[in-house]
Design a protein that fits this description.
The protein is α/β, with parallel strands linked by helices. It has a domain at 6-16 and 30-67 and 119-199: 3-Layer(aba) Sandwich (Rossmann fold). The protein contains 6 helices and 8 strands, in the order H-E-H-E-H-E-E-E-E-H-H-H-E-E. It has helices at 6-22, 44-57, 81-93, 148-159, 161-164, 167-177, and strands at residues 32-37, 62-66, 98-104, 109-116, 121-125, 140-145, 188-191, 197-199. It has a 6-stranded mixed beta sheet, sandwiched between helices. Strands 3-4 form a two-stranded antiparallel ribbon. Helix 1 (6-22) crosses helix 2. The two termini are 29 Å apart.
Length: 204
């Protein structure tokens, strides 16, 4: 079954809300940048969208960046991380809009440029977000966990035969980024099967 992000999103939103409220006038033009990471099928997109709903319901603006739009094909997991830093996270950290060259998965070539506005919060989600060279510029780092069989079932239900033929290739790239038993540094860890959250820092 797909994850139900409601309970976990409420917990993560509590921490994010504190960061939004703590922004002073001097940092008002700089968005609070949230990174959501986890292996494929862990529930990143669902959680990112649930967070955006909560941010906007509280009267703040929110933009989302999905690394699926940056990966240059099925073998391009690591290749997306430098442009993520250079074109998205670093400009946002300076209070500047971001912009990246998207990937056209159908044509298998670069797509149009995509603007990333200076919203109150920007949620960046995708495999590798927390191990990029600019992870220290993120204001809130969220790591999602789920067993391999659960993640694979979710991913194949979502993408069907398209992903089935690339699962092993993609999983091998994930293993390079996240060696066995290695978890990137995060402020909060979410089990997307049980919905439990564990705050490491920034506890609300």
């Amino acid at each position: 079954m797909p994850p139900d992000p409601s309970a976990a999103a409420d917990d993560v939103w509590a921490g994010l809300r504190g960061l939004l409220l703590a922004r002073g006038p001097r940092s008002a033009a700089r968005p609070v940048v949230v990174g959501v990471d986890g292996r494929s099928g862990s529930g990143k997109t669902d959680l990112a969208e649930a967070l955006a709903v909560r941010v906007e319901a509280a009267g703040h603006s929110c933009a989302q960046v999905h690394l699926d739009d940056l990966y240059p094909g099925w073998s391009g997991l690591a290749a997306a991380l430098p442009p993520l830093c250079a074109d998205v996270i670093t400009p946002l950290s300076r209070g500047e809009e971001g912009a990246f060259t998207s990937w056209d998965w159908v044509a298998d070539r670069p797509g149009p440029r995509v603007q990333v506005p200076l919203a109150d919060a920007v949620v960046v989600e995708g495999v590798g977000t927390l191990v990029s060279a600019c992870t220290h510029l993120l204001d809130l780092r969220v790591w999602l966990e789920a067993p391999t069989d659960v993640r694979r079932d979710r991913a194949l239900r979502r993408d069907g035969d398209v992903f089935a033929g690339h699962w092993d290739e993609w999983a091998a790239q994930e293993e390079t980024l996240f060696p066995a038993a290695h978890q990137p540094a995060a402020d909060v860890v979410v089990d997307t099967v049980t919905g439990r959250t564990r705050w490491v820092t920034l506890a609300p």
